[in-house]
Amino acid sequence: MQYLLLIYGNEESFGKMSKAEQGGVLQEYGDFTKSIAQSGHYRGGNELAAISTATTVRVRDKKRLVTDGPFAETKEQLGGYYLIEAKDLDDALAVAARIPSARWGSIEVRPIVPHDMP
Amino acid sequence: MSRMTCPSPLSTAPATLCVGSRMDVERIYREESGRILATLIRLLGSFDLAEEVMQEAFAAALEQWPKRGIPDNARAWLVSTAHHKAVDMLRRRSRFDSKRQELQKIAELEQQLSETESHDDMLRPDALSDDRLRLIFTCCHTALMLEAQVALTLRTLCGLSTEEIARAFLVPLATMAQRLVRAKQKIRDAHIPYQVPPASELTPRLDAVMLVVYLIFNEGYSASSGDAAIRRELCAEAIRLARLLCELLPAQNESRALLALMLLHDSRRSARVDENGEVVLLEEQDRSLWDREQIREGLELVESALRGGAESAYALQAAIAAIHAQATRAQETDWKQIVALYERLLRVQPSPIVELNHAAAVAMAAGPAAGLLLLDGLEGKPELRDYYLLPAARGDLLRRLQQWSEAALAYRRALGLASNDAVRSFLAKRLADMEARHGAT
């Protein structure tokens, strides 16, 4: 069973950290990723660039509409994700709780719906 | 699919005359359906399918047992009949919708079925109690909304019908049905596991289970709403669940404390409301109506829980209830000890409501003026702004100080906030009394 772990946090508060603190967090992420690769959970994952770089595209009446944003009104933004293989929700939650950002942000745990490839 | 009910007391029926009768099936349903459902959920991996085939198995029992008698191991018969029915049902469905997954599931179930029949490991008593424990932890998983945890627990572990649960919580039937469907969907789609959590997770998970049990009890006990019969039933079910927890996890002191708390509160059931349905305050209750047997059991449990190191809010509240239970007359209550326990409770669970109770206890131990001083400090707390018990407590202390007109003012405010009929009628009586006394001076 696969789960997507969506990492939400406040971009600004990361920006306000000292270089040393930021380095510490990155180091923790590195260690965490290594450990879930070893335990067999890891299937993929990435950090996302700041939300200010986001662009939204929609197609309406066959016309492509491209806009800047979204500009999140909320305090927490999607900042990255992991795709993991887990035995069940408890297993996935245990992995999610070890993501460094869980201590100041929040992790949304979403099951992946399996589809047979065509 | 409403729960079957037994029309007459079974103890009066000679067993030999009605072996396999409808009444026997109903008795077995009441006693065993929780366990059977728990086992079927494990075997079938689906709440809905398990419920469906369990009902069918009981229907089959109703038809066959009166003719052939009750099988030696009725529970095993019911589980295996339901199991067969599940395979049949999935096979029938797969003809229309033959997905690979479905076929795989059928193959698994058939495999299981042959294993179950060759050596009935799956029906060992300890495997079965594990099933109920699994079911408790799954229903009370905090990945589900709290209301859904409560509803699912009452539906699957207590066997209440959806309609009964909706009535108990004053929610429209469709809303309650929807809530249960969503919870079961989430269990299935998010793969909430059907297992007892590992030791490292047990304490927080057990806390979640106890919260659900306590909420069920409180809904039944606090006179906030709903009809009396359903509310009594909720208290009884909460007590049964707590007993089950104590039986299945005997090393847990906090669940013993929770059971004690509920038994001690529930022991006052007959004395809390008078024949007109009006609330009777603790100090005015006819203590001869208290359930002595329940008090004896509650006291034993609270003692053993505290000795074992229980220190939760449940344990402290149980200890407070125990002191009340031990006073044969209201005047003999050891209020000093109660004040001390409330002070500990304030450290474990700081809340304005606990502060209010603490103030009331101080008033009893050190006089109404000392209590009023503490109540003054609570005025203006946002959590208590609409809470009738704050002005009601003030009214009571002013009454004791014979400050009739101020007491009347407080009771009037309380009356404006209370919504329960029994409480309102009590407050109105007090208000009239204060006004009369004020007029007389």
Throw out a few tags for this protein.
heterodimer, A: 118 residues, alpha+beta, Alpha-Beta Plaits, 4-stranded antiparallel beta sheet, two-stranded antiparallel ribbon, 30% helix, 35% strand, flat, B: 441 residues, mainly alpha, Arc Repressor Mutant, subunit A, 71% helix, elongated, disordered N terminus
Give the topology.
The complex is a heterodimer of chains A (118) and B (441).
Chain A: E1 2-9, H1 11-16, H2 19-38, E2 42-47, E3 55-60, E4 63-68, E5 77-85, H3 89-97, E6 106-111
Antiparallel strand pairs in A: 1-5, 1-6, 2-5, 3-4
Chain B: H1 22-44, H2 47-68, H3 74-96, H4 100-118, H5 125-139, H6 146-157, H7 162-168, H8 173-189, H9 199-221, H10 228-248, H11 253-266, H12 292-307, H13 313-326, H14 335-348, H15 352-366, H16 368-378, H17 389-400, H18 404-417, H19 421-440
Descriptive account of the structure:
The complex is a heterodimer of chains A (118) and B (441). Chain A is of the alpha+beta class and 118 residues long. In chain A, strand 3 and strand 4 form a beta hairpin. Chain A has 3 helices and 6 strands; from the N terminus they run E-H-H-E-E-E-E-H-E. A 4-stranded antiparallel sheet of chain A has the order 2-5-1-6. Helix content of chain A is 30%, strand content 35%. With 441 residues, chain B is an all-alpha fold. Among the domains of chain B are: 1-122, no CATH class; 124-221, Arc Repressor Mutant, subunit A (Orthogonal Bundle), CATH 1.10.10. In chain B, 71% of the residues lie in helices and 0% in strands. Chain B contains 19 helices and no strands. The longest helix of chain B has 23 residues, at 22-44. Chain B is elongated and about 85 Å long. The N and C termini of chain B lie far apart (63 Å). The A-B interface holds A 1, 87-91, 93, 109, 111, 113 and B 141, 143, 189-193, 195, 197, 201.
